[in-house]
Amino acid sequence: MAIPKKRKIENKANSANSANSANNTASDEGTVSEVIGIDFDVFNLKNEDLNGILLMLKQLFTNLPITYNGLATHLISQKDVGSVLKLPIEEDDSGSDSDEPDIFALVSVVNLTLHKNVKCVKKIMVLLKNLVEKNVQDPLIKKQFNDYLEECEKSENAKQIGLLINERFINIPAKPSYPLCKSLFQEINEKNYNFFAYFALCKVYKIKSNSQQDIFEYSKPEDKIFERYSAL
């Protein structure tokens, strides 16, 4: 039996979520480019997605001390929150499904306040505190971050803080991320999470430049949008 698609964004996923890959073949006469369109489908997180989710988390939290298996299991346990991007599932001649397709993108959220006692979330809280202490130089911004983190440790009825999980393979363009993120925030509203702030872990690359000021580039274009609307 095929895994149910997320109907609310199924049409967008089928019509808009396509990745173009170029296969460049050099010849004596020049370079020939072949563009291949790939359609993706969007699914809820399921137990059979564990290995693919682990791969996405290890790519997002590269070499960072978190409990990958625990976090992946926690994300799956959140019913109707989060999405994964896969190739369409094709049925074989017998009517049964083929092998489970790989995951190409993952979008979800961790409620740091509501689930503060979950082991993997505790690890994330320690990680965030260490990252702030090590990388934030401005004392005012550091204090604001720490105030947010302290807010997470209050009662479950307090204002909640979410950690956005947004990762995909590097050769997958940004286009599929927009309906995935839109769907996530719709699910958050339906879940009645009382988020008053979000943390987002965004990768940046330092670009070589002749200028004295360091220049950084985000690994994912949508991270620029997160920065544009961020409070800190």
From TrEMBL:
Tell me the lineage of the source organism.
Eukaryota, Metazoa, Ecdysozoa, Arthropoda, Hexapoda
Instruction: Indicate the family of this protein.
Output: Belongs to the BCP1 family.
Biased-composition ranges for Low complexity? 13-27
- State the PANTHER family in the record: BRCA2 AND CDKN1A INTERACTING PROTEIN (PTHR13261), BRCA2 AND CDKN1A-INTERACTING PROTEIN (PTHR13261:SF0)
Organism listed in the record: Cuerna arida
This chain belongs to the protein called Protein BCCIP homolog
Q: Which InterPro entries match?
A: BCP1_family
Q: Name one Pfam family in it.
A: BCCIP
| GO CC term, one of those recorded | nucleus
> Segment Disordered: which positions?
1-27
